Every structure is written in structure tokens, then in C-alpha cells.
């Protein structure tokens, strides 16, 4: 098992990365006009006589609290859609005054996700053209805020969502489909805002910060077509297994019989200001600063993308090729897992397991330690943020009676790491900017 000093350094660097994307601090900076793209924000807030707030996602509590604190009596109504299980037990949650807290499901939507969207739309229908609607969006919003398009049911959307996740679809692909099956995504939420000015404060969990993909584009124009959604379903072999109502709806939409999402250039977007307040790069910068303070040479690795197994192996090979002393490699992104087995785990744990197997083969005797984890503190449907890696971890598992190779095939990384002592458990962090990798080489 990895020695404690290396693991302690990895945890310190991870926590510094998470601290760098603290939602309250980032919201405050944006409201002061202190981040790129936020120059108009102070004027928008100052010029509004009434403000309505909708916060959706894993960072919604902190974002809502900071907005409420800053706008004061101008806030006439608000709603924070928060992850299930994060009920009002924290200090921040307890001091929200004018904001309704509504729990919703992630990563697969359920009835709570639909109810949250319906309640939010009812609230937004009270807005007038003279008001300002602030929409604070963070990772998890797509699943937590679900309102099926007319003629579709929540069961239809859940079936499609689960099928795409199991098929290894990227977040970009999943959200293309989500937008075209929704009454609120793909900019459609704007049509519920009564012509008010809209300010989107967005904590990005999407590589490249595509506004149409983050939260499935609640306040952004949609560059994709219905044909793109059909193409994703066919490419991922989901079309033939999709509910009949979904196929029929998309076929009617392709034929132009159903209204489209809000497209880039639509006049409704002229009254919208979207600001990216934080992203994965900001977290990695925080990690690099912490690594340097601990005496490591920071190196930025290639982004995490593609299949988690491939990403893990590539990172192991990258570290093993390094000869410099005391190097800290950091990388971020969002790999995917094509599920073939019935095990338990998440994309970070799967990536770490593949990395461990490769390190056991090519890194024996090397001073290498790694951590792959979600910045939200939750990796897939587990209580772990991610998992550690080292050249000895596979042997740790063997001594505990578990096979790394079998776990990888069965997508059962969680139980392997639980037995071998490699799980990284933090609890929910209250933020989310995708996953990060931290590797220590020749420490």
C-alpha cells in the first residue's frame, strides 16, 4: 500500500485544487466584475429593481447563498436545486432566507428532478421585462433539472439517459440528446423568463467550457440540430433500444413539426449575459501552486478524455517516462466508461485501476504515486471521490484476495480499492469542475 507521506501530499494538492474553485468566492468575484466576461455584471445588478434567482447543480447552495447575501432586498424570489442528501444541515443552507431549497437526483434524473424544474418555471413565470433573472449553474444541473418535452415522459428521458451513460457516451453527446428532448434545456428556459434580462453565472464541469453543454445549455443558444441527437443515439447503438415515443418525437422534430431549441443568433439571447466563473483549468492552477509549495516541479499533463482505461494506461506510461526529480503531474477532464460488467465504481476509479495495472507492469520499484478523483467528491454512484495509484497497488489487492484485472473487466473498481485500501473518500465538496489527476514522480 502507498506510504502515508505521498498520500498526504496528494490529498493536500487535491484539496488546494478544490479550494481554487470555491463557488462562493467565484460568484463574489463575478458579481464584482472581477473575472473575464463579468465586466457588465455590477451594472446589471445595480440597474435591477427586482431580482429572481435560480441556482441548479452541485454547487447551488454556496452560489445561492452568496448571491442572496450580495443582492439583499432586491431578491424577491429564489430557488436552489440541490443534490439529494445535501439537505439543509449546513450553516449555509440554514441561513438562506428567500430561497426555496429543492433536492433533485443525480446522475440519473427522477421525479424530484422533474418537480424541481416545474416549480422553477412557475417561479420564473412571475418575472417581467424590467426584472433581472440570475441563473447560477454548476455540474449536475442536467440531471437535477429535467422537464420532458411535450409528448415525452420522465421514464422516456431516464431510459435514454441510462442507456447513453452505459454506452460510454461523452458528456457532450449525452447533453446533445438531453437538449432536444427537453422543455427547458437548449436555451428553452429563457422562454419561461417573461422577457427579463438574464444573467448566467456558470461553474463549468465541461472540457472547453461549451455553454450549450454545461447544464445542457439552460441559458445558452444551441449549436446542435435534432439530426445531431439522432446521430448520437445511432452511433452509440441506443436508437434501436430507445422508447418508441422518443424515436417518434425526434423524427417529427427532424421533419420540422416540433419547435426547435433556441439557436445561436436568436433575438432572445440579446438580453442574456453568460459568464464562466470557474472551470477545470482554475482547479489545476490551484493544484500546481500547492505542488510547488510542497517542493515539486509542476507539469501539466494531457487532458483526461476518451475511455477511462486508455486514459489511465497513458498516464502511467507518461509518469514512467519521466526522469526529473520531485515532479508533480496534474491533468483534468472527464473520461468515459463503456460499461460491460455489473460491478460498482465510477470513471475516476476505473481510470485509476487501469493506471495501477499498467504501473505494476512497467513501474516496479519506481517512486510513483497518483490520485484520480472527481472535484465534487463523488465518483459515479459511490461514496468515494476516486482512488489512489502506485506500482504496488495491484499486489495490495492480491494480498487482500481481489484481482485488479477481473475488477477492471467487471467495472468493479470500487470493491477492488475498498479491499486494497486505495479508495479516496472526501464527502461532497460543494463544487464541481470535472475530474483531476495528480501524480508524484521520483518524490
Q: What key attributes describe this structure?
A:
443 residues, alpha/beta, glycerate kinase, domain 1, Rossmann fold, 2 domains, 6-stranded parallel beta sheet, 6-stranded mixed beta sheet, 17 helices, 16% strand
Describe this structure in words.
With 443 residues, this protein is α/β, with parallel strands linked by helices. It has helices at residues 4-19, 23-31, 41-47, 60-71, 91-94, 111-124, 141-144, 154-166, 171-180, 226-235, 244-254, 280-293, 308-320, 347-362, 393-399, 404-409, 413-420; strands at 51-56, 75-83, 99-104, 132-137, 197-203, 272-278, 297-300, 327-333, 368-374, 386-389, 423-424, 435-441. A six-stranded parallel β-sheet has the order 3-2-1-4-5-6, sandwiched between helices. The protein has a six-stranded mixed β-sheet with strand order 7-8-12-9-10-11, with helices on both faces. Strand 1 (51-56), helix 4 and strand 2 form a beta-alpha-beta unit. Helix 1 (4-19) crosses helix 12 (280-293). The chain is globular and about 65 Å long.
In short:
This protein is α/β, with parallel strands linked by helices.
β-strand number: 12
CATH class of the largest domain: Alpha Beta
Strand content: 15-25%
**Major sheet: order of its strands?**
3-2-1-4-5-6
Which secondary structure elements does this structure contain, and how are they paired or packed?
Elements: H1 4-19, H2 23-31, H3 41-47, E1 51-56, H4 60-71, E2 75-83, H5 91-94, E3 99-104, H6 111-124, E4 132-137, H7 141-144, H8 154-166, H9 171-180, E5 197-203, H10 226-235, H11 244-254, E6 272-278, H12 280-293, E7 297-300, H13 308-320, E8 327-333, H14 347-362, E9 368-374, E10 386-389, H15 393-399, H16 404-409, H17 413-420, E11 423-424, E12 435-441
Parallel strand pairs: 1-2, 1-4, 2-3, 4-5, 5-6, 7-8
Antiparallel strand pairs: 8-12, 9-10, 9-12, 10-11
Helix pairs in contact: 1-12, 2-4, 9-10, 10-11, 13-14, 14-17, 15-17
Amino acid at each position: 500500500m502507498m506510504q502515508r507521506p505521498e498520500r498526504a501530499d496528494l490529498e493536500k494538492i487535491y484539496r488546494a485544487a478544490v479550494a481554487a474553485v470555491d463557488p462562493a468566492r467565484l460568484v463574489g468575484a463575478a458579481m464584482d466584475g472581477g473575472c473575464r466576461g463579468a465586466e457588465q455584471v455590477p451594472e446589471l445588478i445595480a440597474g435591477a429593481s427586482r431580482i429572481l434567482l435560480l441556482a441548479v447543480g452541485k454547487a447551488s447552495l454556496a452560489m445561492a447563498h452568496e448571491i442572496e447575501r450580495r443582492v439583499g432586498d432586491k431578491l424577491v424570489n429564489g430557488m436552489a436545486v440541490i443534490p439529494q442528501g445535501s439537505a439543509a444541515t449546513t450553516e449555509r443552507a440554514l441561513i438562506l432566507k428567500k430561497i426555496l431549497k429543492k433536492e433533485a437526483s443525480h446522475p440519473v434524473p427522477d421525479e424530484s428532478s422533474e418537480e424541481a424544474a416545474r416549480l422553477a418555471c412557475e417561479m420564473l413565470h412571475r418575472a417581467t421585462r424590467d426584472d433581472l433573472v440570475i441563473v447560477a449553474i454548476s455540474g449536475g444541473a442536467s440531471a437535477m433539472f429535467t422537464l420532458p418535452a411535450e409528448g415525452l415522459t420522465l421514464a422516456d428521458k431516464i431510459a435514454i439517459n441510462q442507456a447513453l451513460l452505459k454506452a460510454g457516451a461523452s458528456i457532450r453527446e449525452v447533453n446533445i440528446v438531453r437538449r432536444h428532448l427537453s422543455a427547458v434545456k437548449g436555451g428553452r428556459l429563457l422562454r419561461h423568463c417573461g422577457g427579463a434580462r438574464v444573467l448566467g453565472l456558470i461553474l463549468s464541469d465541461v472540457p472547453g467550457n461549451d455553454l450549450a453543454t454545461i447544464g445542457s445549455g439552460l441559458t445558452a443558444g444551441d449549436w446542435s440540430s435534432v439530426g445531431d441527437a439522432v446521430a448520437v443515439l445511432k452511433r452509440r447503438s441506443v436508437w434501436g433500444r430507445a422508447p418508441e415515443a422518443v424515436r417518434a418525437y425526434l423524427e417529427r422534430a427532424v421533419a420540422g413539426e416540433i419547435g426547435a431549441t433556441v439557436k445561436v443568433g436568436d433575438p432572445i439571447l440579446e438580453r442574456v449575459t453568460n459568464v464562466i466563473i470557474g472551470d477545470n483549468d482554475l482547479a489545476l492552477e490551484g493544484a500546481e501552486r500547492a505542488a510547488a509549495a510542497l517542493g515539486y516541479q509542476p507539469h501539466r499533463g494531457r487532458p483526461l478524455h476518451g475511455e477511462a482505461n486508455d486514459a489511465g494506461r497513458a498516464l502511467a506510461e507518461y509518469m514512467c517516462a519521466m526522469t526529473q526529480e520531485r515532479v508533480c503531474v496534474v491533468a483534468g477532464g472527464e473520461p468515459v466508461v463503456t460499461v460491460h460488467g455489473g460491478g460498482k465504481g465510477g470513471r475516476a476509479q476505473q481510470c485509476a485501476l487501469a493506471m495501477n495495472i499498467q504501473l505494476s507492469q512497467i513501474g516496479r520499484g519506481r517512486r510513483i504515486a497518483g490520485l484520480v478523483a472527481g472535484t465534487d467528491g463523488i465518483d459515479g454512484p459511490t461514496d468515494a471521490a476516486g482512488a489512489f495509484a502506485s506500482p504496488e497497488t495491484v499486489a495490495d489487492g492480491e494480498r487482500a484476495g481481489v484481482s485488479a484485472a477481473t475488477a477492471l473487466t467487471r467495472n468493479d473498481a470500487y470493491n477492488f480499492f475498498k479491499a486494497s485500501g486505495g479508495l479516496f473518500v472526501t464527502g461532497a465538496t460543494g463544487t464541481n469542475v470535472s475530474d483531476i489527476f495528480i501524480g508524484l514522480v521520483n518524490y
